Amino acid sequence: MTAGDPAADLVDAGLLVPTGLPGVYGRSAAFDDVRRAVGALVGDAARAEHAEAMHFPPLVPRRQLEQLGYVRSFPHLLGTVFAFEGGERDAVRQAETAERHEDWSEFQRMTDLVLAPAACYPVYPAVAARGPLPEGGALVDTGDAYAFRREPSEEPTRLQMFHQRELVRLGEPEAVADWRDAWRGRALELLRDLGLDPRAEAASDPFFGRSGRLLGGSQLEQGLKLELVVDIPGSGPTAVASLNHHLDHFASVFGLRTSAGRATHTSCLAFGEERIAVALFRTHGLDAGGWPDAVRAALDPLQG
Ligand code: ATP
Ligand code: ZN
Fold this sequence. Notes:
binds zinc ion; 36% helix; 2 domains; seven-stranded mixed sheet; three-stranded antiparallel sheet
């Protein structure tokens, strides 16, 4: 790794393909085989718990993020989709402006779409729309889902678009709290099976601004977010997964209820697939063929 480019080792090995934009990479088959195998490992654990698969595109209705207060809490991370809706004359002016690489935003209008900032966001309204939760609540596996965050960085563990695999638990408050407690240990174990050395740390989300610092402090105080942190060679301590307890935040906005009419809570467990893949390549070597047998065995699809 050179001091200048913190991604140089991964790029030189052909694992990441630069695009010229910070935090936006193409990925080689070797990288993506590992990334997907990590996702599959989470998927296996989800299947064992009879999770329901729900795979969404990385877009959510703008209105939903507005309802959730995301625009207030994370204005710096959100990607909003704009599009052209004008006539012939504006289309020509837009093209000419764009071809001069000048600002053509005056021809663009906000759409009803925003980029999904996390894999779990589309799940809550979708489950709520089906009516009361079944007895025992629900558990959803998002599959390997893209998330967007406007946080450009040269650091290969901090991307603008990346994959999360999330498990989302919705149900009565005690059941959701129990699920979260059980998964704290299981998630650490899953990462240890990959030859990583994770630790769980209380954390807070990067809320925006001065009032955001208060929100982060209260999140920390209530122990609502746990990060699983791994020391990644060349990148330092990095959160590769997080367990997030939302209390009734999502449930109240979308009107989630149990069949008995009780209020519900939600929690999610989010694994960052690219971060875990980078941790594996940097820990075990840039050629996955040479990784310890136990690690390759844990990442079952790599065996084939
Ligand atoms: P950080 O504190 O590093 O910004 P986070 O705690 O806000 O991350 P979460 O919202 O908890 O991240 O997202 C869950 C997981 O998604 C993280 O643990 C990480 O593995 C992954 N992730 C989050 N942001 C990024 C990013 N910009 N690039 C790559 N992976 C990310
Ligand atoms: Zn989530």
